[in-house]
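Let us work through a complete example step by step.
Step 1: write down the sequence.
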Amino acid sequence: MALWPGPACRAAFRNSSLRTPLVFRRALAAPSSGTFSYQTSEAGGVKLASRDLAGPTTTLALVAKAGTRYQPLPGLAEGLEKFAFRTTERRSPLRIVRESELFGATLFSSHTRESVIIGAKFFRDDLPYYVELLGEVATLTEYKGSFKFQGEHHEFVEQVMEQIHEAQRHQLGKVNELALASAHGLAFHRGLGEPVHPTSSSPLTKYLSAEAIGAYSTLAYVKPNVALVANGAEHSELSKWAGEYISNLRTQPMEGVPELVETEQTKYYGGEERIAHAKGNAMVLAFPGSSSLTGGFYKPEIAVLAALLGGRSSIKWTSGFSLLAKIAGQRPGLHINTGSSIYSDAGLLHTTITGPAPAVAEAAAETVSTIKKIAAGEISTEDIKKARAVAQFKELEYGQENMAGLELTGAGLVQTGRPYQLDESAEKIRNVSDTQVREAAKALLDFKASVSTVGDLFQLPYADEIGLMV
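Step 2: predict the structure and record it as tokens.
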């Protein structure tokens, strides 16, 4: 007996499929969206958040309110990050590495403008070990050259400082990163305006030492300033082991140590900076944006506006639907990308344009014209609908990644006591109206822009030449 349907049966199936409305068929194929919500609690005074995602692995991170925004001296946030997983009072760096290799785990550390993050990815059953290790890194790291130790140790001079210098050299050759850092400085001045990585011309040796980083660690790793966040762990298990290994964090900094820089409500300034550079050309056009969902100034329409402007295609073999992608596709070597940087109490919507100087100049002027067209309602409803779908998809796709939300959730818990719930933000984006998008574009033009230009300044325009107010 034949198992494969005969020609008549296959033809009937094809005909019935063709008669089925597309929307109905798509609804049948749509999978359950699931949930990305975090469960929260406290253990021993430390804020906890977790999502018990299906799977055999866990990602765990200790998020500290110690990013460049809060550092009292330049380079401290990066130095603190680079000291993670080095010598502690109980383990040598070699032991930490060898044990994690035996567990098949990955260790990571990073920092942003608002946070320092140390963490690990590992098999779910190894949660107790890594909760203990992160607590040990936070409380027992030996900052050689500080407190008990006399003189600078090789860990600081040969490893930490060398990695910082390497990051500086990397940034020096990236005109787009230089321009974006400059735009943040123009927009926010101090606080959020501090660069994530010190520039190569920064006099770091004047401020940075193992002793200074050790003192900063006593500010960063205190209970009110940290949150422990896990993806792929039962909340009861996380709470149990955090109560045992993380609860011994300090409740307040050491005496005599300068306090974190507590900035007031972030203020937007705007302005223009031009930096000559022989390695490439970049312009960043930046405007006031949206805070994080956990902040008090969240604007979901900014995410939709960023997707509408765009610049990069998400579909192969086509320039894409976004308005700036069409501009980029007309000029070989030109690259445009629009993003939204979100922080606890402010945000920055920015379009980065890189490529040959004449093409960058033309694209910058067309970008401003495009924003004015959106504000005037000259963009089709169909394009805004596509942008809304792209923005919502990106938010939900982000939620499926194992690293998703760790830093945003940790920062939200520390700053406001709220985790970053991706389900909630995606729903807010889905409900953005066409009018909200137009009003958001109109609002951009009411503020001074933050325009940073890096490259061949002879050919690259000033802000007023492309129609922006600075």
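Step 3: interpret the result. The chain has a mean pLDDT of 88.
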